[in-house]
């Protein structure tokens, strides 16, 4: 009997999952809500580039073209992903413009599932006790239900469910006479439409990660100092001017097996714990070496944005990104204004930072505050119990590391 496997999402993970399913002799069906494959790379700000060298961001069985630079831009990354799909003939398995609205399991009572020590009661991927029902909605608003034997979720965490801060009544966007959007809406526009949308507007951006700074640079380039872009942030971060601190490749310091020994890891054992403790001076030296390079190349002290936490904390959480090339040039010209605040509220004219009386006058407030990946994952299940098994509580039965199941998980 032919096994059917549903893959939700046609981004990087979805394509890899599809290829793997085919290699095992099963029949995949990939549901993609958008009209094209590529996941988050289908819509980005104009200046987006890969933040990791291409040598560390590639399919193991499909190398990058030699002509592509070490840090490809959005068009080059998307072309690479599309070439991968064509090379392995994956597109024939993809249902574009098909959004998964609900996933449910049929054939077994939920109470019985909760009592299982292993999936299906046996630990086998394909349970004889039930099937998965995938409810989808097509672009013409028609709906379908597909029944499959197994489901692979490749949803991605950086889309669809925006993380919007909550405000007390009367202090939120309803008090503001201008427009309020999330960065997700901004990147959904094409480059020209986005530029026209912000042109002539006083823009305030909430956030201080890569998304926020890229959009701020774009807004400032369009409007200049006549309508400066205000960046409202709570915590500064370590941004890289380049990946060659003092001429030494960052990968030589941190992306190798020796660097793994510098960090304490859960369950690493007594000897490794002692070793990482003994190597703490090396860890400290590496951090200060990189931090000194960043402060030498970027005017962090001038703008009062030197982080209080160490560079190690940033790179350990995979949060290292490059600063937009012209960001501080625009700040020097007055086209970008940096404003630190531990909180803020809306008013009629714009936003008021905590501890200040005067608002940052705005026509548009843009939240670059990330996404709620857990909620997106949880809400796709028709049963609340299934969502809670994976996420949603500290005692979740399947607390996935970066939401990934290891091959040995039962």
TrEMBL record:
Keywords: FAD, Flavoprotein, Monooxygenase, NADP, Oxidoreductase. Coiled coil: none annotated. Its cofactor is FAD. The keyword NADP applies. The keyword Oxidoreductase applies. Transmembrane segments: none annotated. It is an enzyme of class 1 (oxidoreductase). Belongs to the FMO family. This is Flavin-containing monooxygenase.
């Amino acid at each position: 009997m032919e096994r059917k496997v549903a893959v939700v999402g046609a981004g990087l993970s979805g394509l890899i999952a599809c290829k793997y399913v085919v290699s095992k002799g099963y029949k995949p069906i990939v549901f993609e809500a958008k009209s094209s494959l590529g996941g988050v790379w289908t819509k980005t700000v104009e200046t987006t580039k890969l933040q990791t060298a291409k040598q560390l961001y590639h399919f193991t069985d499909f190398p990058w073209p030699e002509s592509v630079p070490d840090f490809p831009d959005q068009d080059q990354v998307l072309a690479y992903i599309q070439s991968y799909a064509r090379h392995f003939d994956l597109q024939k398995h993809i249902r574009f413009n098909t959004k998964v609205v609900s996933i449910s399991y049929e054939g077994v009572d939920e109470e019985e599932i909760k009592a299982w020590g292993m999936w299906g009661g046996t630990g086998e991927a394909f349970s004889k006790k039930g099937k998965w029902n995938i409810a989808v909605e097509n672009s013409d608003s028609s709906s379908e239900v597909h029944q499959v034997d197994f489901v692979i979720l490749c949803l991605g965490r950086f889309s669809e469910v925006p993380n919007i801060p909550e405000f007390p009544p009367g202090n939120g966007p309803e008090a503001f006479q201008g427009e309020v959007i999330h960065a997700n809406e901004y990147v959904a526009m094409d480059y020209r439409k986005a530029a026209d949308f912000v042109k002539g507007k006083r823009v305030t951006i909430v956030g201080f990660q890569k998304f926020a700074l890229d959009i701020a640079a774009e807004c400032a380039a369009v409007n200049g100092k006549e309508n400066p872009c205000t960046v409202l942030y709570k915590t500064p971060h370590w941004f890289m001017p380049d990946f060659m601190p003092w001429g030494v490749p960052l990968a030589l310091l941190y992306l190798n097996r020796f660097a793994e020994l510098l960090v304490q890891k859960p369950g690493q054992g007594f000897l490794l714990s002692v070793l990482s403790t003994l190597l703490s001076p090396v860890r400290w030296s590496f951090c200060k070496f990189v931090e000194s390079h960043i402060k030498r190349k970027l005017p962090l002290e001038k703008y009062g944005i030197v982080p209080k936490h160490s560079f190690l904390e940033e790179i350990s959480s995979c949060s290292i990104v490059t600063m937009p090339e012209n960001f501080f040039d625009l700040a020097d010209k007055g086209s970008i204004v940096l404003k630190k605040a531990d909180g803020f509220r809306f008013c009629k004219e714009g936003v008021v930072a905590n501890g200040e009386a005067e608002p940052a006058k705005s026509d548009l407030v843009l939240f670059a505050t990330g996404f709620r990946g857990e909620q997106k994952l949880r809400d796709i299940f028709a049963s609340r119990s299934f969502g809670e098994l994976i996420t949603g509580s500290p005692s979740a039965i399947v607390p996935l590391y970066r939401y990934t199941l290891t091959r040995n998980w039962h």
